[in-house]
Structure to design on (492 residues):
């Protein structure tokens, strides 16, 4: 039997946001690899080997998946959210780039509900107009690039979604992000902190940029900044479809 | 029985990309409203009334949904992709804004797999780093705003996904989009034209910006422009997770 790899997005947390395509791949898999908390979301069963691994070992994990597929295994690489958004799909192709002996591997990328879109849905429709997604972590890029992109996103009046806004190892950077936003945007700009979306611990807080504090975000939070037209209606936050006088 | 509205994303086309949450809402619905081709994706059954409507009547449709929910109906408003990305969620809140008598309506937004993420998955991982989503239609915003956002997205070195790139009524604008991109980006920049993703007619073509022509896009196409580091490996296109020397 020939092996394959499916890089699958498990969505933000709720079972009913996992696509049937991902469930089908998991049902056929012999091996599941991924970051510990994501592998923990896959039910154990006979014939399935779980390979949880630590954070920041994405390339090793991708290489391991390629080796197993070459040995005939049916491997699902799990990401939370969507595997193509700051997750394992790029890591797999990076591993493939430096290991041409695996060029013929049967690979599929299975999309998932990414955190910003689940957060947006539960808050209303804050990303209902043009928007950007920015990973605030500087593990893999200099923080100056984050700042550069923030300013362009603000000057283009994009709504913005921030992944990995804050960690214990870099508590000051999100403070700097808020400073940059305050330089570029009006104080009334709406900003949403959406934590653990679609899980029992979900909490979504909406404040003005003037009221936002760094402690409102942690690594389980997706932050959404509205554009200049984003507004509230009742408990909802949404961005109108029209802009610039239309 | 009290009525409700679920604004649901049907995903890009394939049945196995419809989330269980959306399927459950459709199973409980008494009424489905939406643009004709999206309502056509919902199976008819006893007790379910389908209300297909034309394009560009989003506010009328949203108002109709609010009225039916107030009358006790269980209404699913269907969008393709994700309802919060250039789709019906914002339209519903716009309708709610001008009709405070419906303020107490039970509303849920159910996310879906949006076209750019399905296209990215089938192409590889071109949105694996920071990216923007831009609606190129000027129905609801002046084209100058599109151009302004394009330049900021390019100068921020974001990857970009374009929705509604081209229609019969405005064939020249996508030509102008390509011109702007050529002013801002190098000729080798990769650009993907992903048509009818996840349907039997799916076709994904990747070319350099120098080779791109306006006819490569139509209204069923999502266009993805890589960032300056986006590359090919075999048949795949991906954007590395690292940038700026990390």
């Amino acid at each position: 039997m020939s092996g394959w790899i499916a890089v699958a997005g498990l969505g933000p947390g709720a079972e009913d946001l996992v696509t049937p395509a991902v469930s089908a791949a998991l049902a056929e898999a012999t091996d599941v690899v991924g970051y510990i908390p994501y592998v923990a979301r896959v039910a154990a069963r006979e014939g399935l080997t779980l390979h949880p691994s630590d954070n920041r070992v994405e390339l090793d994990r991708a290489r391991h998946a390629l080796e197993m597929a070459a040995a005939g295994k049916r491997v699902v690489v799990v990401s939370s959210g969507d595997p193509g958004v700051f997750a394992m799909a790029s890591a797999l192709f990076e591993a493939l780039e430096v290991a041409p002996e695996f060029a013929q591997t049967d690979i599929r990328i299975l999309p998932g509900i990414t955190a910003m879109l689940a957060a947006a849905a539960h808050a209303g429709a804050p990303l209902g107009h043009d928007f950007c997604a920015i990973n605030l972590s500087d593990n893999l890029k200099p923080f100056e690039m984050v700042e550069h992109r923030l300013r362009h996103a603000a000057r283009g009046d994009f709504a913005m979604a921030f992944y990995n806004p804050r960690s214990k190892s870099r508590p000051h950077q999100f403070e700097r992000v808020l400073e940059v936003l305050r330089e570029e945007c009006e104080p009334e700009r709406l900003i949403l902190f959406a934590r653990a979306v679609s899980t029992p611990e979900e909490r979504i807080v909406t404040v003005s940029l003037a009221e936002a504090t760094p402690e409102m975000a942690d690594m389980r939070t997706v932050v959404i900044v509205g554009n200049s037209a984003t507004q509230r209606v009742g408990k909802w936050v949404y961005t109108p479809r029209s802009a610039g006088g239309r």
Summary: The CA atoms of residues 178 and 214 of chain B lie 8 Å apart.
